[in-house]
Amino acid sequence: MSDKTTIGVGMVGYAFMGRVHSQAWRSVGAFFDLPLTPRMAVLAGRSKERTEAAAAQLGWAGIETDWRELVKRDDVQIVDICTPGDSHAEIAIAALEAGKHVLCEKPLANSVAEAEAMVAAAAAAPGRSMVAFNYRRVPAVALARRYVEEGRIGEVRHVRAAYLQDWIVDPEFPLVWRLQKDKAGAGALGDIGSHIVDAAQFITGQRVVGVSALTETFIKERPLAAESAGLGATGSAARGTVTVDDAALFIGRLSGGGLASFEATRFANGRKNAMRIEINGSLGSLAFDFEAMNELWFSANGGGFERILVTEPDHPYVGAWWPPGHGLGYEHTFTHEIKDFLEAVATGADPTPSFADGLRVQRVLEAVERSAAEGSRYTDVEDR
Amino acid sequence: MSDKTTIGVGMVGYAFMGRVHSQAWRSVGAFFDLPLTPRMAVLAGRSKERTEAAAAQLGWAGIETDWRELVKRDDVQIVDICTPGDSHAEIAIAALEAGKHVLCEKPLANSVAEAEAMVAAAAAAPGRSMVAFNYRRVPAVALARRYVEEGRIGEVRHVRAAYLQDWIVDPEFPLVWRLQKDKAGAGALGDIGSHIVDAAQFITGQRVVGVSALTETFIKERPLAAESAGLGATGSAARGTVTVDDAALFIGRLSGGGLASFEATRFANGRKNAMRIEINGSLGSLAFDFEAMNELWFSANGGGFERILVTEPDHPYVGAWWPPGHGLGYEHTFTHEIKDFLEAVATGADPTPSFADGLRVQRVLEAVERSAAEGSRYTDVEDR
Amino acid sequence: MSDKTTIGVGMVGYAFMGRVHSQAWRSVGAFFDLPLTPRMAVLAGRSKERTEAAAAQLGWAGIETDWRELVKRDDVQIVDICTPGDSHAEIAIAALEAGKHVLCEKPLANSVAEAEAMVAAAAAAPGRSMVAFNYRRVPAVALARRYVEEGRIGEVRHVRAAYLQDWIVDPEFPLVWRLQKDKAGAGALGDIGSHIVDAAQFITGQRVVGVSALTETFIKERPLAAESAGLGATGSAARGTVTVDDAALFIGRLSGGGLASFEATRFANGRKNAMRIEINGSLGSLAFDFEAMNELWFSANGGGFERILVTEPDHPYVGAWWPPGHGLGYEHTFTHEIKDFLEAVATGADPTPSFADGLRVQRVLEAVERSAAEGSRYTDVEDR
Amino acid sequence: MSDKTTIGVGMVGYAFMGRVHSQAWRSVGAFFDLPLTPRMAVLAGRSKERTEAAAAQLGWAGIETDWRELVKRDDVQIVDICTPGDSHAEIAIAALEAGKHVLCEKPLANSVAEAEAMVAAAAAAPGRSMVAFNYRRVPAVALARRYVEEGRIGEVRHVRAAYLQDWIVDPEFPLVWRLQKDKAGAGALGDIGSHIVDAAQFITGQRVVGVSALTETFIKERPLAAESAGLGATGSAARGTVTVDDAALFIGRLSGGGLASFEATRFANGRKNAMRIEINGSLGSLAFDFEAMNELWFSANGGGFERILVTEPDHPYVGAWWPPGHGLGYEHTFTHEIKDFLEAVATGADPTPSFADGLRVQRVLEAVERSAAEGSRYTDVEDR
């Protein structure tokens, strides 16, 4: 616990993602034996008053009202970016150029061009960089990856992934920033579709090499939000145009020869956060649904599916926590992410998912958008 | 139970489908109050010896070794076609022209052209005709249709359908007739994909109007079967080419503006007969999996999914059977189908699914094949 | 299929049990290769008119209005008793004395004394006898038994059995015969508690050796039924006393040293026919719920529970039916029962469950009633 | 966040319970708007070295090696007792007498006499006191309580509770303190049986008024643990006697006239932390299993069971956390407990579960032990 192992963290943004990242920074050291002790040094936000209140509540020692100041501070070695996607590239590149390590929320950026610039900056800079696809750190998802690596399901024939939510089913739900292309980049595709593409590539160890896609915006206009920052804002009389997709469906091919289907939607009435992935291989199968996040289902050689309660000490990340059967929650995926990131920073290893992994997802999303625009034509995913 | 209400049935084929149809003909009268009493008059098959044995076991009074004789018999008013798809059109048209009623196994035919000829023959003939998409008669599926009709889920946003089996995962599984295009017409697409297309169109009351598709044959060559008629035949040294798809994925649009995804595969290790369909609407959602065929899941207005055990007296078809909680099995879908068919024959009403409904499915399958052949391009489904 | 292998069956009663037995007699020969072909010779019931109608509908060749005539007929070799429990002993003993084989519905009798007389009659007579605990013939239950026999779960530590229904939750549900002690013998305890006691003894291969019990009648008076024969009869103004238990709970010890708990109730709102049994052993565990009757859950050595879809050809009874994943229903348990009974009759082997097995269940129920009457005192189950 | 609202906390013990309590003290303020800001002032443990390491890791400002010093400190207003049950009474009474507020782990004590002394001390002292039955703070359990209070299930007919674990199935698992009566008070009965008794009384709002019980110790001797403090210690050659129950089964009556069954065991192979409770009422039913802790199942009026994902903002405690579908874990039950405790301390209200509630559970456990010792005789639970 000596000073020389302490590392200063500065976080930009304190909404949903900022709250859960803070909880992870605050908790990680109590459960994992870390090579570096994070110090929650500074929080950046535009409003002084609100940022101060957030810092007090979330446990940050100081604040900045301009992220440009934050990335320059000497007491900050890690910059944690929890803002909407339109600012990721600018902040991350500045932080990397200032010699900081960077943890950036997903999707990596709002365009392939931005993501490429971020990858280039990461390659040129001394700091470590990581994109926060937190679902990789669900113990059940990490266990699925382990099973595939161990050859337990053989050759992958099928990936069947869906990310189903229902929070904008109501046509009177307001036009929040996540429904605006200039801020969010894309709709369900970017926000949640990116997660299932990353999860599919992570678990299988393969790339999505081509896609055929359909996208749709069911509700074209929505009430303007009094304030566009929160999910829960109430509607008003004036209406604006929804400029992102409400749902995206795509089918595609994997680099290993398998087939994959993906569906991202915010119109799946009754599904709250059903991030689901099923994988069928020549020797076995796996199935996961985040709504039951402590379970992984596994079938070997055509046998019945075993419900593995992923709470055993030898399951990924679980040994640090509670006895078997005492499940983890959503927030712990971030604790695991930050633990892995700190280890990478300490050892100089490349953390995963790297910015390059984030770009790989971005290229799939870009191919989806091109395919959807061009009559669902099968579209190769660029691979450089 | 007087003679005048008896109606003679002739069945062609006595393999899997013939066995289950026989059980339905034999049982239907004990449970439903029928306007006509079916008489299991004659079974047709090519081998005299085998057909006689089958007739004895399955309860048919006589046999024919040529279906052409069967369709001419005076004691046959209903012809039940349980052969592979390549003979459906010829038999059905002959039977209709002979003035018989026709119940024909699915898919209706091996091509759109054949299906069109069958629809034309049905329109011109005095008999009733029906295609045997038996899954419509799963009580839970019929209840799903009822819920949609009653407006309980509002506008349909998403259909998510999959039919998952795993019986040819093993590369040494032999080249049975279902893997040969000339006999089966198509692979997973025609055999099981047709069921989920029909179920989607039935439950939503809408048509699939366009599709974008990928198909794949994972195992290109297989051992020749000593006899290609049965699923369980063992392999041999000589190999032949698999000429049908192992899996078909497609996404598409519904006539009401919703999106749909379909997946038919025989390579979903551990899934035996997972005919699944989920529907998300503006007001509610439904979910079904045939592996738990007595259950329908329903969510109203974003609430939790209710597991409806579809065994109540007021559920479709269920009143004829047992008390609540005493579930039905696969075979009962055929009993229900035949009950409905007999009622249509008695009243002169058009049974559903009609040959036109079967053609509608066929057109979707044909668009899938065209799309898959043309780089997944979005392909309109013909609608005449 | 020659005449000498035909065996005549006479059935007494045509209500719920009679209907499902008829379906089994009618179907069994089409699926199983039987040593004897059953002939549905005669149905007995008190009302000539109703019995004739039932015989016509259910497929019985003739009728009798007095079961005493039925048991004397030369064309009847098997007597199938589907009446309420108060007449089991008299009919069964008469049939056995007349040299018939007897299949008797459960519970074997309404008292231990009657059951003992039946066992004695069975021992003295040339015919085979069997009590119809049909749940033994659920493939999943038979598979559970197989797993225990094979040592897959080791020593049995716990049995946790419940049979939950809800059909008399409504206080206005009428006083049908099943709620009258003189006809039904007992309430939930005898009707459904007997099933779980038999299932527990069958699967474990052990006896329940002692019990401690509580019983309760929640609704003491109910409307008199216009007709007391059917479950669905509507209420009337006059009321009568419920003379059986609404629910019975008991805990006990197994002959092998394990502990067991049992609960039988008709007041489990929302549970329709939840006949559940879980068994925990030193090496593994099993779990079953009839509401999902095609599934058996198995855990080996503390691992996750595998959902075995009991529809594989090598599972008990399943090879005679459909391909994997095409589930069976409630009625098939009777088809299996009758198949096994016919084989026993043909070979002269003792069928199981025998009348002695039925008596063994009766003794447990009797100990439950004694314990409940005596302050739940632990009460040994008689074992002679 | 001014100083005057800060309240000092001292915790005794830093094993499993100490770790999870620490996480709750550390996190609670970031999520709930508290009237008091807890300050993690001091941790007590016997070993100076270990306590210092634990304090550093878990975030406590100082340490004591004698809890007697801790309860005297001026910077401690709340004493949080996380030791085995044999020291609860002594520490809690001393703390209360020193004017502190006390949060005490469950079961309240190892005997009724101790628990009575604690209740008396709590009544006489100015501080608030609470026993840590954390499962009351599972959102799904709290929602179940809300549903019962709102009358949604009507009169309670049945409670069916089980707490199933399997961590001592292996006979070579060592003789840890939880298997020794002098330290743990009881075995499965006290450790996990206490939780389901409390949950049943909490959700129904009724008392268990009498019980009939069986207990068993399957493995009578076990290897002595090198160190008896941890669950994971490895075995050694020398053996000692297990002096607590391995499993306890009991059935009983509720103050409102319903029936209840309870089972607590550590021998349910494959069940890790299956704390289950089902309640059947005259109007509806509820079902919960901690292995899927974010789900509550609800049936209204005999309808299907609805799987309520208890992650909506209007569900108990949930509004403070994440969007719908982003589940919580085991640790959050403690965060909720501490939030409620701090509110009670601030307002002077009596927290629940109070020491009196803990005593009420203790009396049930004591009646269970008496009944088990006396041939399962139905034994009234004392109610003073």
Automatic annotation (TrEMBL), chains A, B, C, D:
<feature type="domain" description="GFO/IDH/MocA-like oxidoreductase">
    <location>
        <begin position="143"/>
        <end position="286"/>
    </location>
</feature>
<dbReference type="Pfam" id="PF22725">
    <property type="entry name" value="GFO_IDH_MocA_C3"/>
</dbReference>
<dbReference type="InterPro" id="IPR055170">
    <property type="entry name" value="GFO_IDH_MocA-like_dom"/>
</dbReference>
<feature type="domain" description="Gfo/Idh/MocA-like oxidoreductase N-terminal">
    <location>
        <begin position="7"/>
        <end position="132"/>
    </location>
</feature>
<dbReference type="Pfam" id="PF01408">
    <property type="entry name" value="GFO_IDH_MocA"/>
</dbReference>
<dbReference type="InterPro" id="IPR050463">
    <property type="entry name" value="Gfo/Idh/MocA_oxidrdct_glycsds"/>
</dbReference>
<keyword id="KW-0560">Oxidoreductase</keyword>
<dbReference type="InterPro" id="IPR036291">
    <property type="entry name" value="NAD(P)-bd_dom_sf"/>
</dbReference>
<protein>
    <submittedName>
        <fullName>Gfo/Idh/MocA family oxidoreductase</fullName>
    </submittedName>
</protein>
<dbReference type="InterPro" id="IPR000683">
    <property type="entry name" value="Gfo/Idh/MocA-like_OxRdtase_N"/>
</dbReference>
